[in-house]
From TrEMBL:
One record GO biological process: DNA transposition
Organism of this sequence: Halococcus salifodinae DSM 8989
Record-annotated Transposase InsH N-terminal domain positions: 34-93
Protein name per Swiss-Prot or TrEMBL: Transposase (TCE33)
Residue span(s) of domain Transposase IS4-like: 300-489
Length: 536
């Protein structure tokens, strides 16, 4: 049970016990009559145990507690002699002519929900459960998912927001940091810009002093540059990574993916932070960001994003990102441990300057190679010899003086897409994939490396989600403001990922994604209200 109290679903159960749904503010038994008065909290703990173990009666509960000293003490009784008779447990929830229960139907339902959390956490932790311990527990419905998501989101916000604090004096501040985060979640939900979204947010009357306005919000965001926002969100997201790791996910978080993406820009294109997009886009210019994240078989988490002034600045930003993340590992406590051993990068990072940045930060790498002529020559040979892989050693990428290795093998991703209408050159070379690396391709497990690289596509899923679901829009042309909005979208996305992981892994929910992006944004907007002690 200690595992359930320290970090598990029961760590806040005492707070749950003392909510108005479960009992009055005082903890004395109002129905003691002629027997000694007892503390109410151990009674509720005991009833939780009865539900979790599926004990058939209050008599069985009394019998069990009086023979399990350690369990009785964990429930809150000083000794087994203090365990009350079964009638005391019965009076806590029984509704009779002579008894008005302190635990009504809603409270008992909430108690059974907590019991289900306990049982599923026990399964997740690897404990053997007594026969029939799950049969009596009701199945979760959509509303149960939402309520649990709100609880989890509340705890995750409490962990992450202190890292993003604006550094304001709370005594001189009208709007709290939680209210600003709730405001941003509102913008993401409504797809509204701060200038008009603040009006609808204020009409909701969520906060005593009203919601923050656009000018007030921008004032605080502009006080820090993009590099500072990168560092702050990196630490916040590292907390979420640790939470996911505690459930067995991202154990290989030393392997990261880096990529570049953009938010559409339709304003003045002379802005220093605006760059062109691919011809296939339906918009010509974007604010570009280089992102770093961890990817797994089931989900991905973004660590942070740094705005990119232009593509020629990409190697400097890549170096800065790796140095900052590695610095987080070496110069902070174990709770923020994001050590990097290998990085996976798309062909946008194919170039000598990027390889140099990776080497200077002592980062092993795998970069998707462009189909340059030397690579095509090797593929031609493979086609002729009917080979399934090829290598190029000490190959100079761009102006790189010290060469790298390239290995080539069939592409599992693109081969099935080709038909009689496919361009012949694309059909010939597109069926192969090439990787640039310092790893020795002869002795390495090339198939494993290529498989691990494919996990990088989880980053593409991230982009679709947090740009279209979690991004609070802004018209600002300031790089630091854009960086704040983009990183906030990543934080919202990460909270959504971790909430769903917890629902599945700790509470036994079978659905892959029990709650939607909107569900979590609503939870963030509403739960941020309760976070009164977040430092500014």
């Amino acid at each position: 049970m200690n595992q359930f109290l320290n970090g598990g679903p029961l760590k806040d159960f005492d707070r749950f016990v003392l909510t108005t749904a479960l009992g009055p503010d005082d903890e004395e038994d109002a129905y003691a009559d002629d027997h000694h008065s007892i503390n109410f909290s151990p009674v509720v703990w005991s009833l939780l145990l009865k539900e979790a173990r599926n004990l058939p009666s209050d008599e069985q509960l009394e019998f069990y507690l009086k023979r399990q000293k350690n369990v009785a003490q964990m429930a809150g009784f000083d000794s087994v002699d203090d365990v009350p008779r079964n009638t005391t447990f019965w009076r806590a929830y029984a509704n009779t002519d002579s008894n008005d229960p302190r635990l009504d139907e809603d409270a008992m339902k909430a108690l059974r929900t907590e019991a289900r959390k306990l049982v599923n956490h026990a399964k997740w932790a690897g404990f053997e459960l007594p026969d029939g311990s799950e049969e009596h527990l009701f199945e979760f419905g959509k509303q149960d998912f939402i309520e649990l998501a709100e609880e989890i989101a509340h705890d995750l916000l409490a962990k992450t927001l202190p890292h993003i604090a604006f550094g304001r004096d709370p005594s001189r501040t009208t709007y709290s940091l939680p209210s600003i985060v709730g405001f941003l979640a509102h913008l993401a939900l409504e797809g509204a810009y701060p200038e008009n979204g603040s009006d609808t947010f204020n009409h909701m009357d969520l906060y005593e002093n009203g919601g923050t306005g656009a000018d007030n919000f921008y004032h605080y965001v502009r006080n820090r540059n993009a590099e500072e926002w990168f560092d702050r969100f990196l630490r916040a997201n590292a907390e979420l990574l640790e939470e996911a790791r505690s459930m067995g996910h991202f154990e290989n978080a030393s392997e990261v993916a880096l990529d570049t993406t953009g938010i559409p820009w339709f304003g003045d294109t002379s802005n220093n932070f605006v760059d062109g997009t691919k011809p296939s886009r339906n918009y010509a210019h974007s604010f570009h960001f280089t992102t770093i994240g961890v990817v797994g078989d089931e989900a991905s988490l973004s660590l942070a994003a740094h705005h990119l002034k232009n593509r020629t600045d990409q190697d400097r930003i890549l170096r800065a990102i790796l140095q900052r993340v590695k610095g987080l590992h070496y110069f902070s406590d174990d709770q923020l441990d994001v050590d990097i051993e290998r990085a996976y990068l798309d062909k946008g990072f194919y170039g000598g300057m990027h390889v140099t940045a990776l080497r200077e930060t002592d980062t092993e790498f795998l970069i998707k190679s462009r189909k340059v002529e030397p690579v095509k020559d090797v593929i031609d040979g493979l086609e002729e010899w009917d080979g399934d892989w090829g290598i190029m050693q000490d190959y100079e990428v761009g102006d790189l003086k010290q060469g790298t290795n390239i290995f080539i093998q069939p592409s599992e991703k693109r081969a099935p897409r080709y038909d009689e209408n496919t361009d012949e050159e694309d059909k010939k070379y597109g069926r192969w994939v090439a990787f640039v690396t310092d790893i020795d391709p002869v002795s390495a497990d090339r198939e494993k490396l290529a498989r691990q690289f494919r996990n990088r596509w989880g980053v593409e899923t991230q982009y679709r989600q947090f740009k279209h679901k979690f991004y609070p829009p802004t018209k600002s042309s300031k790089g630091r403001v854009r960086a704040f909005h983009f990183n906030m979208a990543q934080l919202f996305y990460n909270i959504w990922v971790v909430v769903n992981l917890e629902l599945r892994d700790r509470y036994g929910v079978l659905e892959r994604r029990p709650v939607t992006s909107d569900d979590v944004l609503h939870a963030i907007r509403d739960e941020a209200i309760e976070l009164d002690d977040v430092p500014e």
